[in-house]
Design a protein that fits this description.
two-stranded antiparallel ribbon; mainly beta; 8-stranded antiparallel β-barrel; 12 strands
Length: 212
Amino acid sequence: MTKRLLLFAIVLVCSVIPGWAQGRFELQPFVGLKTGGNIPVQCNFCDSSLNFLKINVDGSLNYGATLGVNATDNIGVEFMWNRQPTVVVGRLSTGNSQRHVGINIDQYQGNFLYTFFEKEKKLRPFILVGVGSTKFAGRGESDWRISYGVGGGVKYFFHPHMGVRLQARYTPSYLYATADGAWCNWWGVCYVTSNGHYLQQFDMTAGWVFRF
């Protein structure tokens, strides 16, 4: 009797899960363009002996993938990997000399999505917010920083299990903080305030969506 009940439970679970999961998972490989940005000279990326005046990150192609699950027709979460192979250009204060270093900027973020309209609609706008880490790697060295993301776009499904996704995103990466002065309250307690510095970037991507 126990074996029959266990077998019945297994069959029931196996029959329910596919029905619940049908169309809830989405896989999206993508490619696009990502802007560069400026890195403040007071940072871990700088060599003080070279006396950098300015450090720029070139804009370039980016690519990656997302894998997500839709808890409801409108609310979902996803994991995103986004790589930007680019070049960092350091301008020296001693003249017009420049140093070029090729690096990879990899972002790993968890995104929360809200998608409008019902799942059966072909055209579905969405908005997203995300948080995670950015890895800067070049010349055998790497450094990790916290990063954020906010953006939106549209999905168009020309088939129940396949479509396209267009997206624009603002994605700053936190670099470091510097002291910005002191603030004191009425009781004479003082605090040191800080000023955060970020690598400010935007990207626009397009990709195939596979829904299963």
